[in-house]
């Protein structure tokens, strides 16, 4: 799993710009969490169509995983895992709690998703 510094968003935007943007977002939307979510580079899961999210404070990690699953349209037999600072947060944890514990000094929370086949490929039968 890549380190937090390996996020493309961090490479594309200097720290001061990210910090100012996160502060502006938190001021304008105090009940939301600024999240950057990117695909783990080695994962075979499709990339998500956007990487910046404004997450409600009361959303759980499991609900956020559901949002990501819907955006990338992966089959049900594929599992998806979300990591924050190389740890797997509990699905029942509130995103606000995870944010308080894992936010970056720039004010964003960086999450990475990846997956694996949990039940193998579906059985194909001949016609």
From TrEMBL:
Main subcellular localisation: membrane
Subcellular location per the Swiss-Prot or TrEMBL entry: Membrane
One cellular component (GO) term of this entry: membrane
Organism of derivation: Seriola lalandi dorsalis
BP GO annotations: autophagy
Family stated for the protein in its record: Belongs to the ATG8 family.
Top-level taxon: Eukaryota
Lipid-modified sites (Phosphatidylserine amidated glycine): 120
Keyword terms: Autophagy, Lipoprotein, Membrane
Keyword Membrane in annotation: yes
Listed InterPro entries: Atg8-like, Ubiquitin-like_domsf
Name this protein carries in UniProt: Autophagy-related protein
């Amino acid at each position: 799993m890549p380190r937090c510094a390996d996020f493309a968003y961090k490479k594309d935007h200097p720290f001061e710009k990210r910090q100012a943007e996160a502060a502006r977002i938190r001021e304008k939307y105090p009940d939301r969490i600024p999240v950057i979510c990117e695909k783990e580079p080695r994962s075979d899961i499709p990339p998500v169509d956007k990487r910046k999210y404004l997450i409600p404070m009361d959303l759980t990690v499991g609900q956020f995983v559901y949002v990501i699953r819907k955006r990338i349209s992966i089959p049900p037999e594929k599992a998806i895992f979300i990591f924050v600072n190389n740890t797997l947060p509990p699905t029942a944890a509130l995103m606000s709690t995870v944010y308080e514990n894992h936010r970056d000094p720039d004010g964003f929370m960086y999450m990475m998703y990846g997956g694996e086949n949990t039940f193998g490929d579906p059985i194909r039968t001949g016609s």
